[in-house]
UniProtKB/TrEMBL annotation:
Gene3D superfamilies: Nitrogenase molybdenum iron protein domain. Residues 26-59 are annotated as: Disordered. Residues 1-20 form the signal peptide. This is ABC transporter substrate-binding protein. The lineage of its organism: Bacteria, Bacillati, Bacillota, Bacilli, Bacillales. PANTHER family: IRON III DICITRATE-BINDING PERIPLASMIC PROTEIN (PTHR30532), IRON(3+)-HYDROXAMATE-BINDING PROTEIN FHUD (PTHR30532:SF1). Belongs to the bacterial solute-binding protein 8 family. It is found in: Cell envelope. GO terms for cellular component: outer membrane-bounded periplasmic space. Pfam families: Peripla_BP_2 (PF01497). It comes from Paenibacillus agaridevorans. Transmembrane segments: none annotated.
């Protein structure tokens, strides 16, 4: 009995010691200490034990998805961008950046326009080859961190650019897509403030146009290189802007007429006479020297002269590299400025 009583005393002493050492935290990590102050977490204790040691900088990484659903990952803000499409020039100008190299033809034209880089745009390093097949050697020389191209045109370049630079393919179908692209590239380049400012400028201009415009002029944008022209509909990029401040009734009536969802359809003068627009904006593209503007080629048809816009002198050749190829917020802003000045000269 004595031995048994001694064992019980020993167990009691051990239990008391365990209670004193363990404290009362109900099994919950980080519970309040008896003084009422928050208990220090193990992370806090580790930080104190490592006081004086500089913590490693957190890696800067970002992942974006382009218009082909391809994911691109970057380990830091992108600084060197090569442009093989005019949209790239547009977004870099909005962000206050300069391209590392640019393709020729229409891309060089828009870069040299006064609203973009002016004469400085003539001196950016050149990417040779054609619009459809830019020179890979020139891209290697430029050593960009990113190449921006056009979805549906430059898709096959991704493999060739492997090991040179990631390829971001875009093709905005509406001005909202253009705004989203601006924000994505702003994030990639670490220029979110500049992107936000450019977006605000565009939206302010659009809201002003919507508020002041009487919407009583029927407008139309057509494009082509000869008499076989196409119409930009209300779901086409320029049309999504134009319909905000004008009567813009043009629609894709048959899906087969617009198989790629670009919002443009082939048209005829006979169909054009049915709606008979008040103002026609023409984007002419020339693929050989001496090609006449589309409006002058169409003038050879007797139907052309029957259009109200023709009779009233309201057919206007526009800068197709900006109106048709720019695709970004700055180009669309220029489209707005120029269209409003023609549609409603007393108001804008």
């Amino acid at each position: 009995m004595k031995r048994k009583h001694g064992g019980l005393m020993m167990l009691l002493i051990l239990a008391l010691l365990a209670t004193a050492c363990g404290g009362n935290n109900d099994g919950k990590e980080g519970a309040a200490a008896p003084s009422g102050e928050p208990a220090q977490s193990s992370q806090h204790n580790d930080a104190e034990s490592n006081q004086g040691e500089e913590a490693p900088a957190e890696a800067w990484t970002i992942e974006v998805t382009d218009d082909t659903e391809t994911k691109l990952t970057f380990d830091g803000p992108v600084e060197k961008v090569a442009c093989i499409v005019s949209l790239c020039i547009d977004v870099l100008a909005e962000l206050g950046m300069e391209p590392a190299a640019i393709a020729e033809s229409g891309v060089r034209v828009i870069a040299s326009s006064p609203e973009f880089y002016g004469s400085k745009g003539e001196s950016f390093p050149s990417i040779g080859g054609s619009f459809f097949e830019p020179g890979l050697e020139d891209l290697v020389t430029a050593a960009p961190e990113l190449v921006i191209g056009l979805k549906g045109v430059h898709d096959t370049l991704r493999e060739g650019l492997d090991g040179i630079a990631p390829l971001y393919l875009a093709n905005p179908k509406s001005y909202k897509d253009s705004l989203e692209f601006l924000e994505k590239i702003g994030e990639l380049t670490g220029r979110t403030d500049e992107a936000a400012a450019a977006k605000a400028r565009f939206m302010e201009k659009l809201e002003t146009a919507k508020e002041k415009s009487p919407m009583d002029k029927k407008a139309l944008i057509i494009f082509g290189s000869d008499v076989n022209f196409s119409v930009i509909t209300a779901t086409g990029l320029g049309g999504t802007v134009m319909k905000e401040f004008s009567n813009y009734p043009w629609q894709v009536e048959k899906a087969e007429d617009d198989p790629y969802g670009e919002g443009s359809v082939p048209y005829s003068l006979e169909r054009l006479l049915v709606e008979d627009p008040d103002v026609i904006f023409v984007e002419s593209y020339s693929y050989s020297p001496g090609t006449l503007p589309v409006s002058e080629q169409l003038a050879a048809s007797p139907l052309w002269s029957k259009l109200k816009a023709v009779q009233n002198g309201q057919v206007h050749e526009v800068r197709s590299p900006i109106w048709g190829d720019g695709r970004g917020t700055r180009s669309l802003g220029i489209l707005m400025d120029e269209a409003l000045a023609i549609l409603y000269p007393d108001l804008f």
